[in-house]
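Recall that a protein's primary structure is simply its ordered list of amino acids. Everything else, from secondary elements to tertiary packing, is in principle encoded there. The following example makes that idea concrete.
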Amino acid sequence: MPSKSFSESRMSLIAKVKKYSKTSNFWKSVEKFALKPRKTLPEVNLNKLNRLTSPNEVVFVPGKVLAGGGTLKHPLQVAAFYFSKAAVRAITQAGGKVISIEKLQEQNPNGSKVKIIV
């Protein structure tokens, strides 16, 4: 069980993910990342998203998405635990969408065709 240092919003997220993780390997992976301390979560730059994705893919980053001086050259739907403000701007300017994990669950309860980028 997570320690008391997790925020209320993170505890709520863990509970929601746990419900889906019983039937989906994708959501089991998300749950494992959600239970890790924030300092150990991966940080992914937009350049990495450019290299590892194709236009219009759905991507999950189990950590923080950073702009890192890069630009996104194609539209993506990106869900993550955290986003920098510059990364949100860059994703939307490229025609993509920043979506919440809850929205990702609604759209894709099985987690199929969602790429995890770490």
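Strands lie at 43-45, 58-66, 77-83, 97-99, 114-116. The longest strand covers residues 58-66.
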